[in-house]
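--- STAGE predict ---
source: upstream dedup step, 1 unique chain passed
mode: sequence only
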Amino acid sequence: MGWIWAIIVWTVFGLVCGLLARLLVPGRQAIGLTMTILLGIVGSFVGGFVAYLFTGGEPLQASGFIMSLVGAIVVLIAYTSLAGRGARRTI
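--- STAGE serialize ---
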């Protein structure tokens, strides 16, 4: 039963971080709700890796809210940059 709560908490946390990252990054992001949740979750691990680079610990770790938001912003900028590049090539 504990794993169900973990999934629910990660989903809500990912949604909040993903939505805030989408609000803070200018421009239009063509991603849906599921991708927004994944953005927040992946951002948490990217933020954890950035924290690892500065403080040590484990390289694959989730991070707190601020670093999760920073990680989600980094992932979103990288995603929109790569997605924009691919769209320009096909036109």
